[in-house]
Design brief:
Structural class: mainly beta
GO molecular function: copper ion binding; oxidoreductase activity
Number of helices: 5
Keywords: Metal-binding, Oxidoreductase
Largest sheet: 8 strands, mixed
Number of domains: 3
Number of strands: 35
CATH topology of the largest domain: Immunoglobulin-like
Protein name: Copper oxidase
CATH architecture of the largest domain: Sandwich
InterPro entries: Cu-oxidase-like_N, Cu-oxidase_C, Cu-oxidase_fam, Cu_oxidase_Cu_BS, Cupredoxin
Length: about 475
C-alpha cells in the first residue's frame, strides 16, 4: 500500500486507551480514542502523521493518523463557541481535514479547496452554532480521499449543548458514552493491504475484517445500565445492516444532524458510509451480546465479474460478521440505569411550501467507471459530468429553501451534501422510510429521493461539495460543487 513518510512516525497497537479490563477469548479490548475537549481554551490541535500500527501482534502495518499512528482523537466542541483549530500536515503529501456535518462557511469546510501542503499548518476558526450531534472528520483531498481515509485519517467530532446535557443521557466518555468508528479493512498475513484493481473504482474498497476504533475482534466492557453508542460508518464503501445477536431492541435517538424529536424503538438499523447513528442500549440484565451485521449486498451489476484485484475477495468482504461484543459489568460512576427520555429535541425543519427551486441529481455509473476514469466518456459522474475543481455546478441563494431530487444508477449510493442538514421528503415517490427521519447530511439513494434543504451557510469564496460517500466513487468523479451567496 502507498506509504506517506514523515519525520515523526509513531507506533501503536491500536487507537489509545481501552475500555476497562477484559479477559480472553482471543478478543481485543475495545480501544477508546483520547478525548480532545476544545472547551477549556476554545481550541484544539491536530497533527496529520504517518506511523505503524500492529492490528495483529508482531505484524506492523504502515498507517496514517491524527496525533497518533491510526485514526484520531475524539474532538468535543460546544454550541455557541468559536473554536480555533490548528491542523499541521506532517506527511509528504497534500491533505485536508473535512468537518463532516459541521454547519460552517465553505472556506472553513475542509474540502478539496482547503489543501494543507506538506509541512504547512491550517488555522480555521470554527463557529459552532448547531445542536448536539455526532459528526465525523476525515481527509478530503481530491483523488486521495479514499486512500488516506483507508490508511487511517478519520475521527469522531462531538457537538454538545445545554439541551442535550439536560436530558440525562449517558455521558461518561468511554464508559457509558462510546464513540464507535466502524471500518472494514483487508489484511494479508496480519498486515493491512490496500485493495486495487479495476473493480475497486466501481464497488469501492471492501475488506474481509471489521475494525472498531482500530481494533480487530473488539470486546467492550460496559456498565450494566443504559449505554449510549455513537456509531460512525468510517468505511470506504461497506453498508452495515446492524442488529444484536440476541435480537434485543434498542432506541435510536440521533442522526447525522443531531437528536431525533422522539426515540424510536428498533431491532435493526442501516448505516451507510459517512452516516452516524446514536443508540441507547439497555444492558441492565447483565447478558453479553454482540452487535452484528448482515451481508453487504450493495454492488453494481458488474460486481460478479471477479476483477477486484489484490486483496479484494468479495465473498469474504460481503459476508455477515460480528462487529463488536459487549460484556456488561458494574463499571464507572455508580448510578441507577437511566430511562429513555420521552422527548429528545425540539426542532423546526425546513418548510416545503417555501421551496423556491427544484434540482435533479443523477449519480451515474458508466462502463468507464471500471477504469476509475474521471475524465468523461461515461464513468463515475453526476448528471453525466465528472468532477472538475474549476467548475461550479450549481449556484444557490443564501437563506433559500430548495428541493433536490437525487437518484443513483446500478447500486445504492450514499449522497452527502456539505454545509447543510436536510430532511427526506419522499422516497421512490412515496413516504420516506422509518430510517429516513430526522436532520440528515448523508442518505442512501437508488430510487429517486426528494431532499428538502435550507441553505444557511455561505460558500462564496470556496464552494461546498455534494458527492457519493463511497470514497472511490467520489475520487473518480462522482462529485459536484455548489456556491451559496
Amino acid at each position: 500500500m502507498p506509504i506517506f513518510e514523515n519525520a515523526d512516525r509513531s507506533t501503536t497497537t491500536a487507537c489509545s486507551r481501552s475500555t476497562p479490563g477484559l479477559g480472553g477469548g482471543g478478543a481485543n479490548p475495545l480501544p477508546m480514542p483520547p478525548l480532545l475537549d476544545a472547551r477549556p481554551g476554545r481550541s484544539f490541535a491536530l497533527r496529520v502523521q504517518s506511523g505503524t500500527t500492529s492490528f495483529y501482534p508482531g505484524r506492523p502495518s504502515d498507517t496514517l493518523g491524527y496525533n497518533g499512528s491510526y485514526l484520531g482523537p475524539t474532538i468535543r466542541v460546544r454550541r455557541g463557541d468559536d473554536v480555533a483549530a490548528v491542523v499541521t500536515n506532517g506527511l509528504n503529501a497534500d491533505t485536508t481535514v473535512h468537518w463532516h456535518g459541521l454547519l460552517i462557511p465553505g472556506e472553513l469546510d475542509g474540502g478539496p479547496h482547503q489543501i494543507i501542503a506538506p509541512g504547512a499548518t491550517w488555522r480555521p476558526t470554527l463557529p459552532i452554532r448547531q445542536p448536539a450531534a455526532t459528526l465525523l472528520y476525515h481527509s478530503h483531498v481530491h483523488g486521495l480521499t479514499a486512500e488516506q481515509v483507508y490508511s487511517g485519517l478519520a475521527g469522531a467530532l462531538l457537538v454538545t449543548d445545554d439541551e442535550e446535557q439536560g436530558l440525562g443521557l449517558p455521558s461518561e466518555y468511554g464508559v457509558d458514552d462510546l464513540p464507535l468508528l466502524i471500518q472494514d479493512r483487508q489484511f494479508e498475513n496480519g498486515r493491512l493491504v490496500m485493495p486495487g484493481g479495476m473493480m475497486v473504482a466501481m464497488q469501492g474498497r471492501r475488506g474481509d475484517t471489521i475494525l472498531v476504533n482500530g481494533a480487530v475482534n473488539p470486546l467492550a466492557a460496559v456498565p450494566n445500565r443504559l449505554v449510549r453508542l455513537r456509531l460512525v460508518n468510517a468505511s470506504n464503501a461497506r453498508i452495515y445492516e446492524l442488529s444484536f445477536s440476541d435480537r434485543r431492541s434498542f432506541h435510536w435517538i440521533g442522526t447525522e444532524g443531531g437528536l431525533l424529536e422522539h426515540a424510536v424503538a428498533l431491532e435493526a438499523i442501516t448505516l451507510a458510509p459517512g452516516q452516524r447513528a446514536e443508540l441507547l442500549v439497555d444492558f441492565t440484565d447483565g447478558r453479553s451480546a454482540s452487535l452484528v451485521t448482515a451481508a453487504d449486498t450493495n454492488s453494481s451489476m458488474m460486481g460478479g465479474m471477479g476483477m477486484m484485484g489484490r486483496g479484494a475477495r468479495r465473498t469474504d468482504a460481503a459476508a455477515p460478521a460480528t462487529v463488536l461484543r459487549f460484556e456488561p459489568r458494574p463499571l464507572g460512576q455508580a448510578r441507577a440505569s437511566g430511562v429513555v427520555p420521552t422527548l429528545l429535541a425540539s426542532r423546526t425543519g425546513p418548510d416545503a411550501s417555501k421551496a423556491v427551486r427544484r434540482r435533479r441529481l443523477s449519480l451515474n455509473m458508466g462502463m468507464g467507471g471500471m477504469m476509475g476514469s474521471g475524465s468523461g466518456g461515461g464513468g463515475l459522474t453526476i448528471n453525466g459530468k465528472p468532477f472538475d475543481m474549476n467548475r461550479i455546478d450549481e449556484t444557490v441563494k443564501l437563506g433559500s429553501t430548495e428541493i433536490w431530487e437525487v437518484s443513483g444508477e446500478m447500486m445504492r449510493h450514499p449522497i452527502h451534501i456539505h454545509g447543510v442538514h436536510f430532511d427526506v421528503l419522499t422516497r421512490g415517490g412515496g413516504q420516506p422510510d422509518v430510517l429516513d427521519q430526522g436532520p440528515r447530511d448523508t442518505v442512501l439513494v437508488k430510487e429517486p429521493v426528494e431532499l428538502l434543504i435550507r441553505f444557511d451557510q455561505p460558500a462564496k469564496s470556496a464552494p461546498f461539495m455534494y458527492h457519493c460517500h463511497i470514497l472511490e466513487h467520489e475520487d473518480n468523479g462522482m462529485m459536484g460543487q455548489f456556491s451559496v451567496a
